[in-house]
Structure prediction request, 129 residues.
Amino acid sequence: MKTNNKDVRHTMPSKLRKRYCQILELKDDAALIAEYIDLHSEKKHWKQVRDGIREVGILEMEIYLAQNHVFMIVETDADFEWDAAFAKLAQLPRQEEWEHAMQKFQRTAGKTSAEKWKRMDRIFYLYED
Prediction:
């Protein structure tokens, strides 16, 4: 099976990391979903928002789509403090503007990313014997 290396990122972290998973529901409108995807593309995303995400300690962030549901994976160092980081992120340049711009696509209420995205609980992993 041939894979596109740009899309596959398997790394062995040199220290412990945390992984957070979140979900958000988009409006069930194909044109709006296409625009949402386009605004998250490498070409059209807002660099200041991406820089802010990194500034608060997020090492990697990926978003996946299934119909009108988006699923986000966030990787951080083990000592990452979620609430403090997202409180800081909400104050960084263009973050509030980005969140406002994203509201037209989202079925969820809230002004900040932390208010819109719902964290998920892990219920399974490949247990050690």
Remarks:
- The first strand starts at residue 17 and ends at 25.
- The two ends are 29 Å apart (CA to CA).
- The domain at 17-119 is CATH 3.30.70.100 (Alpha-Beta Plaits).
- The chain has one domain: 17-119.
